[in-house]
Automatic annotation (TrEMBL):
The keyword Acetylation does not apply. It comes from Auraticoccus monumenti. Residues 364-374 have a biased composition (Gly residues). It comes from the Bacteria. Keywords: Membrane, Transmembrane, Transmembrane helix. Residues 375-385 have a biased composition (Low complexity). Residues 364-385 are annotated as: Disordered. Signal peptide: none annotated. This is Uncharacterized protein.
């Protein structure tokens, strides 16, 4: 049997564990139908809207049980690589397509938006701590603006906090299942990629992606821009733009929420560009305790790959959800939420990042090139920008 590399083992272990949890849930939904299940709401999965609750639940359970069996056998090296690859394709088809919905993107986007206030405050505090010039030009003024804004919009912020907290409490179980399906699909996607790695065909494909990774990454960074710009229009007076862009009667709470959603999208733009910037390979000096150390490949590849999975998994359910013949709405969704473009390009950008970093290790690149120099540990300090 083929040797089980660390990457393959970790990916397969993740896929097996998430499949096991999914199997337990699926069996519970089948054996206790009176309690209902996740797929009782057809909008929770594309397959449920096509074939009904029972079919979706059965497919979920069978796929999860198969995933556990294949995962355990694969971890024991009892299955050849081609069998694991075929099983990975089937699992990805189920958990990455048939059992997905637009809810995957909505849940992820909302969680990121809710975290943005804390992210912004931490970043500004680090600017104040680490950059003497930017401290007074950017850091202090921005923090002061945040404080003033929070005071002026305290009622709207309070209302938004209560609304979001109530929504999380009411939809908590649904959110957890959505995240489980996402992690299961992403785990099998990672397993499939790790299984294919090391073959001549994969090496040729990786070389092509690495050569074009800058253009691919810039294209991926453009993916969030339409949504980021659209949500910023909520800050404008309603009479300046079309109601299609700025709905009439937006209150301050909704406008603040739009700003948070937009900021999350802008964060995606910046982090995507980090895949081709020096600070994507070496921690910059404002990062506490890690400044000057090399960024572990997984620290960028894992979240980037997970977001790419969210986008790819959402692409088909989003497009097929448009009523037949409504070309205007289809074009609107394809432009504002370009998952069909953003997801694949982000996946390729992450692929190129991983290939580039591993090529640097193999060639013994030095710290000056921004790679993982051979013989140098991930914790070795290097010059950071």
């Amino acid at each position: 049997m083929d040797p089980l590399t660390r990457t393959r083992r970790d990916a397969l272990l993740t896929a097996t564990l998430t499949s096991a949890v999914a199997a337990v849930l699926g069996l519970g939904w089948l054996l206790l139908p009176g309690r209902g299940g996740f797929y009782a709401d057809p909008s929770n999965a594309w397959l449920a809207s096509l074939a009904g609750t029972t079919t979706a639940t059965v497919v979920h359970t069978v796929a999860a049980l198969l995933g556990v069996a294949v995962g355990l056998a694969g971890l024991a090296r009892a299955l050849p690589r081609p069998v694991v690859a075929v099983a990975g394709v089937l699992e990805l088809l189920c958990f990455g397509l048939l059992l997905q919905s637009m809810g995957t993107l909505a849940v992820t986007g909302y969680l990121v938006a809710m975290a943005m206030p804390a992210v912004l405050v931490v970043l500004l505090l680090q600017v104040v701590r680490r950059y003497p010039v930017a401290r007074w030009v950017v850091g202090v003024p921005a923090l002061a603006a945040l404080v003033v804004g929070a005071v002026l919009a305290r009622e709207a912020l309070g209302t938004l906090t209560v609304t979001l907290t109530s929504a999380l409490a009411a939809q908590g179980s649904r959110l957890l299942v959505v995240l489980l399906l996402l992690l299961t699909g992403a785990g099998w996607a990672a397993t499939l990629a790790a299984t294919a790695a090391g073959t001549p065909r994969a090496a040729r494909a990786t070389a092509w992606v690495v050569r074009h990774r800058r253009a691919i990454t810039v294209a991926a960074a453009c993916g969030p821009l339409p949504y980021a710009l659209l949500r910023l229009t909520w800050l404008l007076p309603s009479d300046l733009l079309s109601p299609a862009l700025v709905p009439e009667g937006l209150d301050l709470t909704t406008r603040v929420w739009g700003l948070l959603l937009s900021s999350g999208a802008w964060l995606g733009v910046v982090l995507t560009l980090g895949l081709i910037r020096p600070w994507g390979e070496v921690f910059p000096r404002w990062v506490p305790r890690l400044a000057g150390q090399r960024v572990p490949v997984a620290a960028a590849a894992a979240p980037g790959g997970l977001v790419a999975a969210v986008l790819c998994f959402t692409a088909v359910p989003m497009l097929v959800a448009v009523p037949e013949g409504n070309l205007t709405e289809a074009a609107y969704l394809a432009l504002v939420f370009p998952c069909w473009f953003w997801g694949p390009t982000l996946a390729l950008a992450v692929w190129g990042y991983v290939g580039h970093r591993r090529a640097d290790v193999g060639s013994g690149a030095t710290g000056g090139s921004g790679g993982d120099g051979a013989g140098r540990s991930a914790s070795t300090p290097v010059t950071a920008g």
